Amino acid sequence: MRASGVVSAALLASSAAAAPLSISSILGSLFTTATTDLNILLGNLGITLRTNATAGGAVVPFASQCPLPITPVTINTTRFGHDLTWPKGVNGGQFVNWTTYKANGANLGGWLEKEKTHDPIWWDQYAPDAPDEWTLCQTLGSKCGPVLEARYASFLNTSTIDKLASVGVNTLRIPTTYAAWINVPGSALYHGNQQSYLRTITQYAIEKYNMHIILGLHSLPGGVNNLDIGLYRNSTTPPTSTNNL
C-alpha cells in the first residue's frame, strides 16, 4: 500500500510539473521507501539490514587453495568385479539413439532393490519397523538371504513381461543395490542370485519383445546419501570410510 502510494504521488507530481519525472527517479523513490520500511520492520525484530555487501571479507583464491579442513582420503586398493556377460540385444548390438527413440517405460522398482513403500504387505510380514533394506536384513539375520531369494522369484516373472508388452511397454527400468553385483565385507545388504534373476527377465524381454533395459544402481558402498535407498536411512558414514569406493 505504501509503495503504491509513492508511485501514485510521483505520477501526480509528474503530471503537475513542467517536465515529467523519469522512470528511474520513480523507481529510486520506490526503492528508498521500500528500504526504509524494511529497515523499520527488521529493526522491530532486532535485525539490522546491511547495505555494504561490497565491503565483505577478503577474497579467497580458491583456485590455489581450499579453506575447508578436509582429511585426505585413503585409497582402497581392493577392487571388486563380476563375470556377468550379455549377448547382443536388439539393433544388432548398436547403440540406441535416445534423441529419437520413443520409450514407453515401466519401472520394476521394489524387485531386486527392496523399498518398504514398494512392497509394504510383504515387508510388514518380516520387519514392519525396518525403514530400509539394510535394517530389514539386520532384523532378519541369517534368514535375510532365503527371504529375499523367495521374493525375487515371486515378485514378478516372464508373464509380467508379457502383460507389460501387451500394453505397449518397450523399455524396462530395473533398480538394484550394489549388493547385486559385489559382496562387500561388513555390508548388511544381501549378495545372492540377483544377477541370475535379472538375466532371466531381461533376456526374455529383449529376445521376445525387443525391449530396452535401463539398469539403475541405487547405492554404493559407504553410501551416496542418507535416504533409505542411499545405503540405509540417516546413514552418517564418513567420506573417509574404507567401505567407500
Keywords:
single chain, 245 residues, mainly alpha, three-stranded parallel β-sheet
Structural features, described:
The chain is mostly helical and 245 residues long. The protein folds into two domains: 2-51; 90-217, no CATH class. Helices cover 36% and strands 6% of the residues. It has seven helices and three strands. The chain has a three-stranded parallel beta sheet with strand order 1-2-3, with helices on one face. Strand 2, helix 7 and strand 3 form a beta-alpha-beta unit. Helix 1 (2-16) runs antiparallel to helix 2 (23-44). The chain is elongated, with a radius of gyration of 30 Å.
**Oligomeric state of shown chains:** single chain
Mean pLDDT over the residues? 76
For the sheet with most strands, the description reads:
3 strands, parallel
Write out the strand line-up for the largest beta sheet, numbering strands in chain order: 1-2-3
List SSEs in N-to-C order.
HHEHHHHEHE
Which helices and strands appear, and what pairs or packs with what?
Layout: H1 2-16, H2 23-44, E1 105-107, H3 120-126, H4 133-140, H5 144-155, H6 158-166, E2 171-176, H7 194-209, E3 212-217
Parallel strand pairs: 1-2, 2-3
Helix pairs in contact: 1-2, 6-7
